[in-house]
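[Protein data]
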Amino acid sequence: MSDTEVVVELSGITKRFPGVVANSDVNLTVRAGEVHAVCGENGAGKSTLMKILYGMQQPDEGTISLRGERVRLRNPQDAIRAGIGMVHQHFMLADNLTVLENVVLGAESSLGIGRRARARVAELAATTGLEASAGTLVERLGVADRQRVEIIKVLYRGARIIILDEPTAVLVPQEVESLFRTVREMAADGITFVFISHKLDEVRAIADRVTVIRRGTTVGTVDPKEISTRELAEMMVGSQLPAPGTRESTVAGHDVLRVSDLLLETEGSTRAVLDDVSFTLHAGEVLGIAGVEGNGQTELVETIIGMRKASAGTIELVDGAGNVRDLTRLGTLARREAGIGYIAEDRTRHGLLLTEPLWFNRILGYQSREPVSKGHLLDLAGTRRDTERIVRDYDVRTPGIDVPAAALSGGNQQKLVVGRELSGAPVLLIAAHPTRGVDVGAQALIWERIRAAGRDGLAVLLISADLDELIGLSDTIRVMLRGRLVAEADPATVTPQQLGSAMTGAGS
């Protein structure tokens, strides 16, 4: 690989924001046809560096060279013209448009929208392994095929350097293997990949080289075949890579949540989004829900928390004395006041107000309870004190509680949300993808806090695309497919591959 042409060279990249140095003298060298991983803890500066490479932000210092020529990328259009594409973690596709329409949208001037465009899309579909036709609506595609459409989009625009941001976050093991085959084949044809991921075992499986960034600066570049996962984790965060592991069951006897015959229908849909869903969750139990995204997990969570109204069925919360409260017709605030904590799958949409300070975000969902309120009035002093406690106890790295939530890295935002939702002694925690996009250190902290809360009797409904997390944290796992609970698995014996098969309906 050492004789291969250098296609990307970032030298001395420094980027400052008010009160924060995101990148400090970062160096990155990427060669043609390689898969080059960039790893680092949350807040280490990976996202900022990739935004600079894609023209979304400008460096304060340092230079960018592409194929030996120094360039200035003022915006993503400049990056695209220079042959750089980016596949974002959260897909940027229009569900109501076809594959062809999504690919050519904004690039109509190159091959038009007719026969030539269709032929090029078909050619790229073969390259990426997309079997769906160009006329298929994106809303009908699974997560893995949506990702392929995103890759086709950047290839269609001429990209020879592709940034993949957390590409395996929502894929089951079989889909990860398929993606990696595609990446290797494309790399063999000269396409260069910059691979951003927190999953170190996957990084070691796919990357030719790994550059580690810690606290905004480059730690080093290594050959993943010559370093263990533990050593790579130590480079990132200075500690051993945690694992969810196995644990003794903390399930107590009494019920906490009873969901019976839950039905959710949506206008225009040919089938129910949730169909006859029933389960019981006990005190001290972690019930994991496995499923490929788009099979009803999000709707299940939103129906239990009150963001959606069930078409039929009941949702009941039971206290330690056996008193049953029917939540089915109650609003979200009433359910929160009944003792439900909620870690939303998208913290930026449903968990935080990014433009507001940290102490203000402590109020959300708790505006009627101590320590946020006293009677009918907000207790701002109490709110600030408790926010400072959360920052200390959950290692939220921030200059202070008056900075806006947007100033924090994703992992620190998540630790703030987890700290808030585990405050106030909830009886039930709904945790949707609680460690998505967080580094190994934050992941370990969140896992331990969920375990500790379980030991104290908290019931947890865990939805996660991380199958190791589901297996390691759950007492019971249920598999959701097309809005139904179709299988049950024992975390002590099930493998990620077996779960992945059940999630995709293989063998059913």
User: Anything to note?
Assistant: Residues 127 and 185 are 8 Å apart (CA to CA). The chain has a mean pLDDT of 87.
